[in-house]
């Protein structure tokens, strides 16, 4: 059995008196900065000039350039996009890190793949919420939280693990439960999940189902409802009560079809593809390709993004959602 930690299990107070600088005020930066401030932590924001800078200021945070914030901080939480993080770190954070400081992440990517190599005299910790930033903020406001992973890469002070737990608690995550991890485990699993199941897997599944139906002459509108719109309803049931609840709530016809056909669709070939993807995460090939595309100006990312944005599925979905005001994002904590 896994040991989960909750609020009552986090009793140390090594963060007391520390100034935490959030580098980046996007999805995670915005959520974590607000949650920690509401938990009584001294929070500042470090971000480049622009939309995020203005928003952090408007939200009442002392807001600086990354370098200025790094100078003032005891704890630097790196929440820029992963691909720019090592440049930001080298130019604007590393020069101002002092012995005893803490360097925090929400994804192990840069440290694990050695894009960032922190000095030996700082603690290097991770607090990775298992959910998007707007949900972390919304659930915090509602008195819950999103579960999180915590851990450390480097323990200079002897308290790195406790600090990571305290940070997670201040973010509201210990209300939902904390799980211990390592930078390697978090990075491998996070990349695997988003590529194979959560985003890559789900979008490919929806897209392929949509193609098969429309190529066979079925209406794109109906196909959209069938393979995309209903996805949320099924996911909600799985989220609330696992496969068992979903099957209980659906017809026997659908349950039988699901058992018999599903494993043929996601079969041996898909499993092998997932194993290959995991290997390329573990041996660093995916990270190398991703960083190379970034350094070349993201030609591949932008080409694929354009294809996705202009697909028939995207267009049909957009038209239909415009007629369904109830599905519009009504999340006022979203950044
Ligand atoms: P976002 O893209 O939402 O936000 C990035 C922030 O960094 C923005 O405020 C952006 O400002 C700022 N920024 C970009 N470039 C620079 C720069 N050169 N100098 C200073 N600031 C800059 O990122 P996420 O919140 O999605 O991701 C942050 C980290 O959290 C990543 O490590 C990610 O893997 C991790 N994570 C994210 C999750 C999520 O929910 N999205 C979930 C779990 C982990 P501007 O407005 O100017 O672009
Ligand atoms: Mg991720
Ligand atoms: Mg049933």
Automatic annotation (TrEMBL):
<dbReference type="GO" id="GO:0009099">
    <property type="term" value="P:L-valine biosynthetic process"/>
</dbReference>
<feature type="binding site">
    <location>
        <position position="48"/>
    </location>
    <ligand>
        <name>NADP(+)</name>
    </ligand>
</feature>
<keyword id="KW-0479">Metal-binding</keyword>
<feature type="binding site">
    <location>
        <position position="194"/>
    </location>
    <ligand>
        <name>Mg(2+) 1</name>
    </ligand>
</feature>
<dbReference type="GO" id="GO:0050661">
    <property type="term" value="F:NADP binding"/>
</dbReference>
<keyword id="KW-0560">Oxidoreductase</keyword>
<dbReference type="Pfam" id="PF01450">
    <property type="entry name" value="KARI_C"/>
</dbReference>
<dbReference type="GO" id="GO:0004455">
    <property type="term" value="F:ketol-acid reductoisomerase activity"/>
</dbReference>
<keyword id="KW-0460">Magnesium</keyword>
<feature type="binding site">
    <location>
        <position position="133"/>
    </location>
    <ligand>
        <name>NADP(+)</name>
    </ligand>
</feature>
<dbReference type="InterPro" id="IPR013116">
    <property type="entry name" value="KARI_N"/>
</dbReference>
<dbReference type="InterPro" id="IPR008927">
    <property type="entry name" value="6-PGluconate_DH-like_C_sf"/>
</dbReference>
<dbReference type="GO" id="GO:0009097">
    <property type="term" value="P:isoleucine biosynthetic process"/>
</dbReference>
<protein>
    <recommendedName>
        <fullName>Ketol-acid reductoisomerase (NADP(+))</fullName>
        <ecNumber>1.1.1.86</ecNumber>
    </recommendedName>
</protein>
<dbReference type="GO" id="GO:0005829">
    <property type="term" value="C:cytosol"/>
</dbReference>
<keyword id="KW-0413">Isomerase</keyword>
<feature type="binding site">
    <location>
        <position position="226"/>
    </location>
    <ligand>
        <name>Mg(2+) 2</name>
    </ligand>
</feature>
<feature type="binding site">
    <location>
        <position position="190"/>
    </location>
    <ligand>
        <name>Mg(2+) 2</name>
    </ligand>
</feature>
<dbReference type="InterPro" id="IPR036291">
    <property type="entry name" value="NAD(P)-bd_dom_sf"/>
</dbReference>
<dbReference type="GO" id="GO:0000287">
    <property type="term" value="F:magnesium ion binding"/>
</dbReference>
<keyword id="KW-0028">Amino-acid biosynthesis</keyword>
<comment type="function">
    <text>Involved in the biosynthesis of branched-chain amino acids (BCAA). Catalyzes an alkyl-migration followed by a ketol-acid reduction of (S)-2-acetolactate (S2AL) to yield (R)-2,3-dihydroxy-isovalerate. In the isomerase reaction, S2AL is rearranged via a Mg-dependent methyl migration to produce 3-hydroxy-3-methyl-2-ketobutyrate (HMKB). In the reductase reaction, this 2-ketoacid undergoes a metal-dependent reduction by NADPH to yield (R)-2,3-dihydroxy-isovalerate.</text>
</comment>
<comment type="pathway">
    <text>Amino-acid biosynthesis; L-isoleucine biosynthesis; L-isoleucine from 2-oxobutanoate: step 2/4.</text>
</comment>
<feature type="binding site">
    <location>
        <position position="190"/>
    </location>
    <ligand>
        <name>Mg(2+) 1</name>
    </ligand>
</feature>
<dbReference type="InterPro" id="IPR014359">
    <property type="entry name" value="KARI_prok"/>
</dbReference>
<feature type="binding site">
    <location>
        <begin position="25"/>
        <end position="28"/>
    </location>
    <ligand>
        <name>NADP(+)</name>
    </ligand>
</feature>
<keyword id="KW-0521">NADP</keyword>
<feature type="binding site">
    <location>
        <position position="251"/>
    </location>
    <ligand>
        <name>substrate</name>
    </ligand>
</feature>
<comment type="similarity">
    <text>Belongs to the ketol-acid reductoisomerase family.</text>
</comment>
<dbReference type="InterPro" id="IPR013023">
    <property type="entry name" value="KARI"/>
</dbReference>
<feature type="binding site">
    <location>
        <position position="230"/>
    </location>
    <ligand>
        <name>Mg(2+) 2</name>
    </ligand>
</feature>
<comment type="pathway">
    <text>Amino-acid biosynthesis; L-valine biosynthesis; L-valine from pyruvate: step 2/4.</text>
</comment>
<dbReference type="InterPro" id="IPR000506">
    <property type="entry name" value="KARI_C"/>
</dbReference>
<dbReference type="GO" id="GO:0016853">
    <property type="term" value="F:isomerase activity"/>
</dbReference>
<keyword id="KW-0100">Branched-chain amino acid biosynthesis</keyword>
<feature type="binding site">
    <location>
        <position position="52"/>
    </location>
    <ligand>
        <name>NADP(+)</name>
    </ligand>
</feature>
<dbReference type="Pfam" id="PF07991">
    <property type="entry name" value="KARI_N"/>
</dbReference>
<feature type="active site">
    <location>
        <position position="107"/>
    </location>
</feature>
């Amino acid at each position: 059995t896994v040991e989960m930690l909750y609020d009552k299990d986090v009793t140390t107070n090594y963060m007391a008196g520390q100034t935490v600088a959030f580098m980046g005020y996007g999805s995670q930066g915005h959520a974590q900065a607000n949650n920690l401030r509401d938990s009584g932590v001294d929070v500042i924001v470090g971000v480049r000039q622009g939309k995020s800078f203005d928003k952090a200021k408007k939200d009442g945070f002392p807001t600086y350039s990354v370098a200025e914030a790094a100078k003032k901080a005891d704890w630097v939480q790196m929440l820029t996009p992963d691909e720019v993080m090592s440049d930001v770190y080298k130019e604007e954070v590393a020069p101002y890190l002092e012995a005893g400081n803490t360097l925090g992440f929400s994804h192990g990517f840069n440290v694990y793949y050695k894009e960032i190599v922190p000095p030996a005299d700082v603690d290097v910790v991770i607090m990775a919420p298992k959910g998007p930033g707007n949900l972390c903020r919304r659930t915090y406001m509602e008195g819950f939280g999103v579960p999180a992973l915590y851990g450390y890469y480097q323990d200079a002070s002897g308290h790195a693990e406790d600090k990571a737990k305290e940070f997670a608690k201040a973010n509201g995550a210990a209300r939902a439960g904390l799980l211990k991890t390592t930078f390697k485990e978090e990075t491998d699993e996070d990349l695997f999940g988003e590529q194979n199941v959560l985003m890559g897997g789900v979008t490919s599944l929806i897209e392929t189902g949509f193609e098969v139906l429309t190529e066979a002459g079925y209406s794109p509108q109906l196909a959209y409802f069938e393979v995309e719109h209903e996805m949320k309803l099924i996911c909600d049931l799985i989220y609330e009560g696992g496969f068992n609840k979903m099957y209980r709530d659906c017809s026997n016809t659908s349950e039988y079809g699901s058992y018999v056909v599903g494993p043929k669709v996601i079969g041996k070939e898909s499993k092998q593809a997932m194993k290959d993807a995991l290997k390329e995460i573990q041996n660093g090939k995916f990270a190398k390709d991703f960083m190379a595309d970034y350094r070349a100006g993201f030609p591949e990312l932008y080409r694929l993004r354009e294809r996705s944005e202009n697909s028939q599925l995207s267009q049909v979905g957009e038209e239909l959602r415009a007629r369904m005001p109830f599905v519009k994002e009504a999340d006022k904590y979203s950044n």
